[in-house]
What does this fold into?
Amino acid sequence: MDSSLTFRAGIKDVIPTVFGYIGVGLAMGIVANTSHLSVWAVLLMSLIVYAGSAQFIIVSMLLAGSPISAIVLSTFLINSRMILMSMSIAQYFKKESLLQNIGLGSLLTDETFALSMNKLNQQLKTSWLHAANIVAYLVWAAATVVGCLLGNLITDPNQFGLDFAVVGMFIGLLYLQIITDRSKSLPTQLWVVLFVALAMYFLMRWVPGNLALIFATLLGCGFGMVVDHK
It folds into this structure.
């Protein structure tokens, strides 16, 4: 068993990732403030919903007066990719209790999932993933609240490049995945990245972006199995 994946190591490993949370969280809080949501509403949304893209959609739909049923359905569709991610990571925690798995799955995000995938050459531990999840959770909530408080001072978050923060964060995670995964050759990984990018590009012409992301992910998994088998 690898003892390096401790709770303290989880905090250290997730720190570079949460800088992206700060940028996007500030933007989220600013947008919520301009949509006339209170600080308490923003905090509760971040603690309960805890999904950046979904929270942006919720704010815009609330502002447009959309029915609750439509908001709930949209949130579910946007975050349905988490079902795939949770299923993928659950296999590494089969020996853990149901309560432990619920805790891990409840706070799992795209970023902590990607961070976990970078650690597959070691044995994943619940303490490490709990630390990464909790730090990300608290930083996100704090960033959205601060953004809401600063909302009166910043009317256009895009002028500071905050809208690119999450994109830059995922580029960094992808780079780390490529350079640390020794089980697959570099050409294989690059072919899969190119295939998913092209699939996403063409799928977005016919289906909504979040559904296109799910389909592109499934197609990419299938393509990766074929390429790796060859």
Remarks:
- The mean pLDDT is 83.
- The CA atoms of residues 195 and 220 lie 7 Å apart.
- The longest helix spans residues 7-34.
